[in-house]
Design goal:
Length: 142
């Protein structure tokens, strides 16, 4: 009886370890990690979610995105409030639409100095087993 219980527990543990996360869950982790890094002011960590082939608004490339993040996060604290998010995964690519409010706070103030609501489209790709943001485009101001 004791051996059967041990084998049953071992089987459950092995099955739990073999369970793979869905692409949606993996993308959500990367996205949430980027948001947390931006809010923490960590430009290098925020850029880790970007593909080497990244393109952004006005033709921004990966080097430009890193420089932009360093500049903005050095000047002010940025808050990111995700209002909505939708995700569609097709094989090794995915498209995510998000509505976010960015807030900025310079100096030591407790309240944001400014805020803007944005609709963004993020195109994801799976590279070497990891999900990376290939493109970010704004779909319109609100």
């Amino acid at each position: 009886m004791r051996d059967q219980l041990f084998l049953a527990l071992l089987s459950v543990a092995l099955l739990a370890g073999c369970r793979r996360e869905t692409p949606e869950a993996l993308i959500r982790k990367v996205f949430d990690g980027c948001v947390q890094a931006v809010e923490a002011g960590d430009a290098a960590k925020a850029a880790q979610g970007l593909s080497p082939k990244f393109t952004g608004p006005e033709g921004m490339d990966l080097a430009g995105a890193r420089l932009y993040l360093r500049g903005i996060l050095a000047r002010e604290r940025v808050g990111v409030h995700v209002l909505t998010r939708n995700l569609a995964v097709r094989g090794t690519e995915a498209v995510q639409t998000v509505e976010v409010v960015f807030t900025g706070r310079s100096g030591g103030g407790l309240l944001p100095d400014e805020g803007s609501r944005r609709s963004l489209v993020l195109r994801w790709e799976r590279r070497d087993g990891d999900w990376k943001i290939r493109e970010i485009q704004e779909s319109g101001n609100k």
